[in-house]
Amino acid sequence: MDNKLRIAVQSKGRLYEETMELLAEAGIKLTAVKRTLLVPSRNFPVELLFLRDDDIPDSVANGTADLGIVGLNEVLEKEKDVEVVKELGFSKCHLSLAIPKREDYTGLSWFNNRKIATSYPVILSHFLERNGIRADIHVITGSVEIAPGIGLADAIFDIVSSGSTLISNNLVEVERIVESQAVLISPRRRHLSESKREVLDELLFRFDAVKAADGKKYILMNVPRNKLDDVLMVLPGIKSPTILPLANSDWCSVHSVLEEKKLWEIIGKLKNAGAEGILALDIEKMIL
Fold this sequence. Notes:
By secondary structure, the chain is of the alpha/beta class. It is built from 8 helices and 15 strands. It starts with a strand and ends in a 6-residue tail after the last strand.
């Protein structure tokens, strides 16, 4: 029985780049470049099907692909019979309503009887309906942000990442509607074979190991034994720091894992507590 998983992924853009990075960090090597529609791995039982992002939910729902990696925004917009297996934590963005800076925004009622340009009419219509807003939705497939400037719409509903596109088009974000990120999806009603399920479990295990290491640093230091208790009070290790003897019995080596955002704060405290020779290393994967 064929246990090879076919995963539909975006063929270009930021999500493509970050998906390829995740797969590489998970040890999955491809046999060809992305220009090929279907690319197998040479060391893991998966093959990638490169599609446009808005085609991925349908390809998973209809069985063309076993799984898909796509933005949650596309899953919500297409409303196909798929479910989220795992949030992947990258390509984060949000869908927001934005209006020209010159406008005096008074709340959601501002959108009544206005024209809103968007590439996400389904998500927008659901939001407007839930909030009792009557507006004219104008569907645009690209460059939504220019619509108010050329008189095509009064406002926009679009993806926002850094916000720079809004600023450059004299728009201001007034309502954040949906938080999105890359997700792994599967069909809701069609189950994987046992052999493919085993491959998926291994894939998820690798993804978790990569994600667990993200934003972490492995630190090593030498500590006088008479200062060990003081140093251990500083360390917020995953479970308990590793303590190893050194050739000089008055000293020991202490190993632990820290969150990168707290690294410099904790290193300062470690030095004050008596630690010396502190070394901070990147972590590629971490098995919890």
